[in-house]
Design brief:
Length: 342
């Protein structure tokens, strides 16, 4: 079929890769360039925190998250970056004064899904065995099965793959004004397709009721003195921070979560909180270099759950909130399995 996709951020790309596997011909529209950074998918840390996200999410997130973890390797293989996937579990810790919070956090996860009984309590020795660099901590939990996708590599490699594919036409810097039954309206003209998908994230606000942005800020640090190998979280009463390791001593540090659609640069308050928290986790961050500070907004619905909406010759997928990498492959699979293209 001849298919149009409005919005080539994270969901649009996962969708495009699936549709190409099925032999369809695609026309993509995005208001940004193929290598631009306006998509939330470009700012994301790419954590696949299937258990840890359960604290404030429903068990449906866990089920879709598990399915996505099974699907990511194939998608990454398709674009030749299987090494952008890591699934070696994650660590969660806290400062001694916050140990009660940490216990409560783990109990909450264990009350939500039986699989969370696999989460392992670590003492100092156990921590050092997994992550020698976290030796200053004496209590933590190891969460098996969690992992990460290197989000920026996924976005870059998928751009290259889609741009080079003979069944793809990509209209870059093309703002879509409307998406309706089999039609995409852009550049003052309507283009007709056998089916269209609206995956514009926050850009679909005029068409999707209750869609809002949730601001998030992240740092990229180069930290040669730090050797943490797994995504690591620290619980704190006011904020949760995570450290996500990338190749060559780079770490993504995030992320704030603020009910605002403001995409302006990071605030002083957020930068102080994130950097002091990360320094308290590991003093080796003192001499790290700040290589990037990014802000973006997560496209979110009122219940913070994803939504697939089908109508004649059209599907909208939106509301992936802080779970885009965790959920996109499973949500796209579900949308396509619902038989919309048949
Ligand atoms: C700071 C931060 C950290 C995150 N960390 C994680 C994480 O660790 N794990 C995780 O699972 N998720 C994470 N997320 C969430 C994840 O990034 C989002 O859920 C996901 O990107 C949403 O995908 P999307 O395709 O709906 O939107 P986007 O990725 O934002 O893509 C939307 C695309 O539509 C285009 N567009 C918009 N309007 C128009 C228009 N009118 N015409 C044409 N094109 C248009 C945009 O240019 C963009 O390319 C994070 C998000 C943020 C902000």
């Amino acid at each position: 079929m001849n298919i149009g996709i409005a919005g080539v951020g994270l969901v649009g790309r996962v969708l495009a890769l699936n549709l190409l596997q099925q032999g369809h011909t695609l026309t993509l529209f995005d208001e940004d360039t193929a290598y631009g950074d306006s998509a939330a998918g470009m700012t994301a840390a790419g954590m696949l925190a299937v258990f840890a996200e359960l604290e404030s999410a429903e068990s449906i997130i866990f089920e879709h998250g598990q399915r996505s973890i099974a699907l990511w390797p194939e998608l990454l293989k398709q674009i030749n970056i299987l090494d952008a996937y890591q699934q070696e579990g994650s660590i969660i810790t806290a400062h001694p004064q916050d140990y009660n919070e940490l216990e409560h956090f783990i109990e909450t996860l264990q009350s939500k899904v039986s699989e969370a009984s696999e989460i392992q309590r670590l003492d100092k020795e156990g921590i050092v065995a997994l992550e020698p660099d976290l030796e200053q901590h004496s209590k933590a939990f190891y969460i098996p099965h969690e992992g990460q996708v290197d989000a920026q590599r996924f976005m870059h490699a998928s751009s290259e793959y889609l741009l080079a594919h003979s069944d793809v036409t990509w209209h870059q810097k093309t703002k879509v004004m409307d998406v309706s039954s089999g039609a995409i309206f852009a550049n003052n003209e309507v283009q007709h397709f056998d089916w269209v998908f609206d995956t514009r994230g926050l850009g679909a606000q005029e068409q999707v009721n209750d869609l809002r942005g949730v601001r998030g800020e992240v740092f990229w640090l180069d930290a040669p003195e730090v050797h943490i190998t797994r995504p690591t979280r620290m619980l704190h009463p006011r904020y949760k921070i995570y450290i996500v390791p990338r190749p060559n001593n780079r770490y993504v540090i995030g992320a704030t979560e603020i009910e605002s659609e403001d995409k302006s640069p990071m605030s002083v308050r957020s930068s102080l909180e994130l950097l002091s928290a990360v320094y308290s986790m590991h003093s080796g961050f003192a001499e790290a270099r700040i290589v990037n500070m990014l802000t973006n907004c997560r496209p979110s619905l009122r219940d913070n759950l994803p939504k697939i909406e089908h109508s004649t010759k059209m599907t909208r997928i939106n509301g992936l909130y802080r779970h885009g990498y965790l959920l996109a492959p499973a949500i796209v699979e579900k949308a396509l399995n619902e038989g919309v293209l048949k």
